[in-house]
Description:
Three copies of one chain form a homotrimer. Chain A is an alpha+beta fold.
Amino acid sequence: MTYVRNAWYVAEWSVNVPVGKPFGTTILGEPIVIFRKPDGGLAAMANRCVHRGAPLSLGRCEADGLRCMYHGMLYNAAGCVTEIPGQDAVPPNAKVKTYPVVEKDSWVWVWMGDTVADAALVPKAIGLDDPNWLLGHGHMDYDAEAQLINDNLLDFSHLSYVHASSFQVGDSFAQEQPVVTPLDRGIRYERWTTNAAPPLGANPTLRFDNYITYDFLIPGILLMWSGGFPLGTAAKFNHGRPDFDLACNGVNFTNQAVTPLQPGKARYLFSWGPHCKHGDAILRDNMIKLAYVAFNEDKTMIEAQQKVLHRSPDFQIMPSRHDRTVLLYTRLVEKLAKQEVA
Amino acid sequence: MTYVRNAWYVAEWSVNVPVGKPFGTTILGEPIVIFRKPDGGLAAMANRCVHRGAPLSLGRCEADGLRCMYHGMLYNAAGCVTEIPGQDAVPPNAKVKTYPVVEKDSWVWVWMGDTVADAALVPKAIGLDDPNWLLGHGHMDYDAEAQLINDNLLDFSHLSYVHASSFQVGDSFAQEQPVVTPLDRGIRYERWTTNAAPPLGANPTLRFDNYITYDFLIPGILLMWSGGFPLGTAAKFNHGRPDFDLACNGVNFTNQAVTPLQPGKARYLFSWGPHCKHGDAILRDNMIKLAYVAFNEDKTMIEAQQKVLHRSPDFQIMPSRHDRTVLLYTRLVEKLAKQEVA
Amino acid sequence: MTYVRNAWYVAEWSVNVPVGKPFGTTILGEPIVIFRKPDGGLAAMANRCVHRGAPLSLGRCEADGLRCMYHGMLYNAAGCVTEIPGQDAVPPNAKVKTYPVVEKDSWVWVWMGDTVADAALVPKAIGLDDPNWLLGHGHMDYDAEAQLINDNLLDFSHLSYVHASSFQVGDSFAQEQPVVTPLDRGIRYERWTTNAAPPLGANPTLRFDNYITYDFLIPGILLMWSGGFPLGTAAKFNHGRPDFDLACNGVNFTNQAVTPLQPGKARYLFSWGPHCKHGDAILRDNMIKLAYVAFNEDKTMIEAQQKVLHRSPDFQIMPSRHDRTVLLYTRLVEKLAKQEVA
């Protein structure tokens, strides 16, 4: 599978990387340990002690860095061994690869590229502490290639089938095409459903013009807004992007991140919740419960798909019209990946 | 391992393929979905959607066929896609391989050959609804090559050892040879045990001439009759096939099917029970309980054997005299398989 | 990984190989069954019936040997088939490889070499029935290469980190080097810790000169004595080997054996307990409980290390000064293994 390396990958929710407890993971097959310095700042490095290969994620956070708890090699945040118990000198090559790491919008992001990390490339997500939103969050690990999850998120026609019962999306949803626009680092999806039942919570006999839009960005970040508008709004905005201040029902947002851990394994991280003017903590908690139901439907389907593909190495996909979006994104990934190698 | 392809393989008990619920399996390593049309008739096809490889066994049975529940491709019973949500035309190559499938004697049989399916080759089993028999049924999945289970069923000398406690078969059983006759599509096993304890249920101090006979047929179907006869019956029939109407004790029958799912995996399906004149539902249920005990003894042995063979790729078997039957059947399989390739 | 073949490997604790129950294992990847003859003596042979490869460890111990419980082949202690049910003659090549096996010091030892077994090479361990010691015992199976466990036992500086909480060994322990002496078939480790807290049990405000010494012998046998001595003893013996009769606190002993089962799998067997003059059964039982806690700490670390190494085939260790002992032993293994091939 092809992935862009010059990108910020979400390693985990910030809250799951507490002070004093190293966090071990893999991204693109590389073992990585992330830990907090005493000042709370993050460091990320190869999760493999230079001495005998023990994982540093079983190590101990100390004032001066991270100590491997097999034979006591101490690493500073620059990945250099600064102490080897039982000997005076430390060889100059006693160091591990480090990774640029930032904490932003409640996520820990790791730069996997070989070039200088570009802080401007961190996608503009919304953190759990944003006062405008009431966001819950969760995560799942997949026995599937990250690209299969990306494909899933790039073709929302699956809502009519995979989520027929959980999200109660009818077949008609899949029969219409969204408006899709290429972005520099992804694609933008927009879609009006006019004269429709309310998206969330409200009296189901009422009717709205519902709008959903998401950006799906390298290396696998989904940022989605949706809401119900007064009938006629779609026409008023010529079926284009509305002013969200006009929304009168169920405005909600979700951040999602898909991270390739290693071949055939991926992590899926998500938030979801209402705008503060369109819901409360109870609605948020119910939305997260519903998200777990629905995202487990995706997991069941995608992991089953992965098994079929694993047994069918020669299988070629037969794209449908909905795959336009998938192909747009896939070609962007391939283009950027090719530039990296050149 | 060598298997005959021009043959009907048992996919499952009919009752486990209900209306409205697609059944996914593999046979000879090929992923297959079997489902019932609204009229109850069966259809079988490749369990892999042409679109993105999702398993159709997670699909939805509809009036017009089977719908993939990933992105909604609808398949008719001929394996052709008839609807792609969001687009008008369906490409003509949007179809999957289909398999001839019949329902007979309570089993779902799938033809795995590339030639025209030959209905006459379905082995003549006995269904669970046959009024002459009271048959219970069961199934087990093995982590072992189907051929190892076939080998087991072709050499009943294992009863003296594997089933020493469950079936209480003494060492002497293995010391005698059965009469074995080649058939066009298998072998026939016959054996008298004279002046012996009753096979099932009766006063254990009584003595009978017990007779067992089974046909073991391509691709792995065992059909076995056994019963106790008055002393002298073996001699009267010159140790050949008796008239079963003369049986006076414990006449019983078992259908068994061994299906190669994929390399190293097999399914074992079995019925067992008394003739209606020689038992009742209570005896039938006790026989199935006993079958599970005994067949788990086989499973333990064969799965352990499989592990040894897996670690010993160069191992050559050293056939015993009892292996005559195994070799007869194995040569038939090799002959038929060779003819298929020619 | 390189292992010496002309050596006695510990298969299991004697008590786990009872009369009447064959014991199946693998050593260096070879499947082996060990069983007791009616006189209690041991026999060891390939755990794979010549007939169809069934494991003999599922067999039945009889007066005349071990009977395969698949189709009844009977083996004598020389590995020869002596009976094949249903046929008169036994082919002369119906035999399996046998292994020299001895029972000594509560362990079952198997010679894996192709040369004549050398009884003098059985390491001089201490049995569970030795009246001078109160030894408990245990065992663990590792998902790790045996060599990684050997490496662990050859570098005790890990005590300061892996066992910081269980054995309460401070960082200072790792900062000093032991005295290491090469032996013909291993290495000897010796170390004084002067003016230190008592090793076991005693008033923690008291101070002792603690001494530990172990021999680590081919193919992976650790024999360790430790104890506390009156202050000044280290100086008196010039920091060399003391007279253990002078010990005044916590004299204890542990036998340990590391056996490579197959690539990536190992068995770890251990005893531990006080000298009869320095403890009782309650102390012994508490020591075994503590051993399980501590040895599980090793297991967690080493299995995690194994996973990292498995994913990092090109990883090269960077030896520290403490690795002197590991390298000494590793070179001995390589030298002996090379001699075997020559």
